[in-house]
Structure formats: structure tokens, C-alpha cells
Write a sequence for this structure.
């Protein structure tokens, strides 16, 4: 049997594509990754994607922070005839907003409710040169499909220190926009590692919550664009630690309490008291399994070949979410392009008389 649509990925782009594809009666099959694969654990490419590694998600529309039940009461009146499924007194309603894993689990469930099939396998090889396309899984099984939606995301680069690993979600993060607002970072000195546009942007963003922000820069200059670098360097709350790298993340077992910095000029070290460390040292898109068969930009992100379409260099292959986005990288923008990819795949199948 040849599938109509196969979706590879497990984040907001993949599940949104699955919701749309299943509602379009395309019977999509999603490969969400192998949860037992240690490489996936290290790379953050487990089922449910990057969001499964975060805590509260406060910027996804429809999920405000706080008491969800109270919010629903104000947003949707119990006697509203347009909302017959009102469950105001359901004791199981969560009283918080939503966290990353919950949001992803709900999206996956929504896709399953419409008939999406989900397999916990890693796609390790693809043949996109011949139609239908052939995908090979880590267990050696193969699947053939007329269209493919690649939504494998990107993983944040970390420094690779064991102490950094230990304090992930306890003060170590790679997303200021996602985590900066959390109480553990409030009114504390924080550190951002990196000197690119992301680092400058994250440092500037964190000044809203932190008492002070240190930028840890390994050279004596920024990589960021002049305007972004100047905005950060001129900010009264930001201090740049030039020619330094992080040697160790220090903590009290529960949260980060500081960093040991090492000079890149000599052997000197120093300790810096901070309540959090944000890595902004770039991302790596998850495209290795494609073995160069889909065109990417210099940084390895899949390129869309038509403006405002999810088409890739291979006819019938579509890309959505962070794997094709080195700029916005937000859950809601990934979900949007996932929707677009499903509609593009549906139209492709219609055009080829396959639906
Ligand atoms: P970049 O690759 O531009 O910068 C990565 C930074 O991390 C560099 O300063 C690099 O140092 C540093 N770094 C890398 N590895 C280490 C390490 N092990 N230890 C310490 N420092 C390290 O990535 P960005 O995510 O900042 O930007 C990616 C792209 O997205 C760029 O094209 C950027 O312009 C764009 N972008 C644009 C924005 C905007 O315009 N609003 C916002 C964010 C990103 P070094 O300089 O020494 O190599």
C-alpha cells in the first residue's frame, strides 16, 4: 500500500499538519520518533519535540497563564448556546495555563481523534528520487508514500557540559522567549552565552525580568548585526564578559546559582553569581536523514522554493516548522506552516488525481 501523506516530526508543525490532513480524509501516518533511542534523548528529538523540554507555554494563543478554569468562565459563558460542550464544573480541568508537553499531547490527541496513525519510529533513510517516495525506519521497515511533510524541527545547540545537562529546566535554557518569564528567573542576575543576533535579542529581552544580564562572549567582538549588538551593549542592565567561556554551571542541586567562567586569553577563571544561563549559540536543523536530497540553505535549514508555499526542491515533498525556519522559531508559527503543508499536500494529491 502506498500512503497518501506521511508526516515526519512530533512538534506543533507535525501535529497541525496531521489534524488538517486527517480532516481532509488523507489518512496521514506520522512518524514521531523512537522514545528509546539515546541519541534522541541527547538531541531533544524525542516524541513531542522541543516543546516537551519546556515548562509553561504562555505565548500560544488560547492558552493563557493562570487559572484556566477561571479564564474559561470569563471567556465562554456557561449558558452560551454557541458552546454546548461547556464543562465549567469539570473537576479535572487544569488550574494552570498549559505547559509544553501538555500542549503537544493535546495536539497529538486532536490529530488522533480525526484518525491520524502514529508510529514511534525514527526515519533513518529516504529515497526521494523515485516516486512514490520510500522511507526506511530504524528497525529496517519501509513505507511508500505519494507526499511527504518534513516537520522534524531543529535542536538548540548547548555547550555540552555535564553540569549544563544537570540543570536543564532548573535554570539552564536555550529559549529566553519561552522561559524568561518564569518565576525562577525573576529579579536575579542571568547570563546569556553567545554573541550573535539571538544572544543580543535574548539578553535584551531578559532585561525585562532580570536584575542584570551578563553576556558571555568567547571573542573580543560580537557576531551580531551592528544595530542588535549596540542595542544590547548600550543597555544599562547588560554587561558583556568578553573573551570568556562557561567552564561549569554551578548550582545547589535544585537551581542554578552561578557559572564558572574561563578566560580564552589566559588560564584565569572566575565565578559569576547568576540564577540562570541561556544558551544562544545557534540551532541545528534535523535533516541528517535526508542525506542532501532536499535543498537547504547554508545553515542546513530546508528552503521553500516558492514564496508563501511549503514546497521544497523535491516535487511532492513539503517542509513545515523549525526545520524550514531559522528566523521565527515559535510554536504558533510552526503550527501555521504545518497547516499550510497539509493543504499544499492535499492540493498536490488532487492535482495528480490521487485523492
Ligand atoms: P549565530 O550562528 O549567528 O551566532 C552564534 C553565536 O554563538 C556566535 O556568537 C558564536 O561565537 C557563539 N558560539 C557558538 N558556539 C559557542 C560556544 N561553544 N561557546 C560560546 N559561544 C559560542 O546564531 P544566531 O542564533 O544568533 O543567529 C542565527 C541566524 O538568525 C543569523 O543569521 C541571525 O542574523 C538570525 N537572527 C536574526 C534575528 C533578528 O534579526 N531579529 C534574531 C535572531 C537571529 P563566535 O561569534 O565566536 O563564532
Amino acid at each position: 500500500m502506498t500512503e497518501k501523506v506521511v508526516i515526519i516530526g512530533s512538534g506543533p508543525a507535525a501535529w497541525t499538519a496531521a489534524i488538517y490532513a486527517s480532516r481532509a480524509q488523507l489518512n496521514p501516518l506520522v512518524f514521531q520518533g523512537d522514545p528509546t533511542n539515546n541519541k534522541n534523548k541527547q538531541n531533544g528529538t524525542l516524541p513531542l519535540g522541543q516543546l516537551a523540554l519546556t515548562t509553561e507555554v504562555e505565548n500560544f494563543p488560547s492558552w493563557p497563564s493562570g487559572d484556566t478554569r477561571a479564564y474559561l468562565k470569563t471567556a465562554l459563558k456557561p449558558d452560551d448556546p454557541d458552546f454546548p460542550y461547556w464543562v465549567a464544573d469539570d473537576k479535572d480541568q487544569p488550574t494552570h495555563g498549559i505547559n509544553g508537553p501538555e500542549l503537544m499531547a493535546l495536539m497529538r490527541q486532536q490529530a488522533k481523534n480525526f484518525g491520524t496513525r502514529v508510529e514511534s519510529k525514527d526515519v533513518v533513510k529516504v529515497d526521494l528520487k523515485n516516486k512514490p517516495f520510500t522511507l526506511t525506519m530504524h528497525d529496517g521497515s519501509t513505507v511508500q508514500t505519494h507526499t511527504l511533510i518534513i516537520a522534524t524541527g531543529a535542536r538548540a545547540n548547548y555547550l555540552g557540559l555535564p553540569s549544563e545537562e544537570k540543570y536543564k529546566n532548573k535554570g539552564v535554557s536555550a529559549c529566553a522567549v519561552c522561559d524568561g518569564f518564569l518565576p525562577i528567573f525573576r529579579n536575579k542576575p542571568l547570563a546569556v552565552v553567545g554573541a550573535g543576533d539571538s544572544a543580543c535579542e535574548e539578553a535584551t529581552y531578559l532585561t525585562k525580568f532580570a536584575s542584570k544580564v551578563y553576556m558571555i562572549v568567547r571573542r573580543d567582538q560580537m557576531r551580531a548585526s551592528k544595530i542588535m549588538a549596540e542595542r544590547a551593549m548600550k543597555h544599562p542592565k547588560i554587561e558583556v564578559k568578553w573573551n570568556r567561556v562557561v567552564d561549569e554551571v554551578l548550582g545547589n542541586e535544585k537551581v542554578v546559582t552561578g557559572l564558572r567562567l574561563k578566560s580564552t586569553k589566559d588560564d584565569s577563571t572566575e565565578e559569576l553569581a547568576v540564577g540562570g544561563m541561556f544558551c544562544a549559540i545557534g540551532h541545528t536543523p534535523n535533516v541528517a536523514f535526508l542525506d542532501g536530497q532536499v535543498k537547504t540553505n547554508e545553515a542546513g535549514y530546508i528552503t521553500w522554493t516558492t514564496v508563501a508555499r511549503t514546497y521544497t526542491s523535491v516535487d511532492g515533498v513539503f517542509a513545515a516548522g523549525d526545520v524550514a525556519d531559522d528566523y521565527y522559531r515559535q510554536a504558533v508559527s510552526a503550527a501555521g506552516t504545518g497547516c499550510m503543508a497539509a493543504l499544499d499536500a492535499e492540493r498536490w494529491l488532487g492535482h495528480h488525481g490521487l485523492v
Q: What stands out?
A: Confidence is low (pLDDT under 50) at residues 84-90. The two ends are 14 Å apart (CA to CA). Residues 331-351 form the longest helix (21 residues). Residues 162-279 form a domain with the FAD/NAD(P)-binding domain fold (CATH 3.50.50.60).
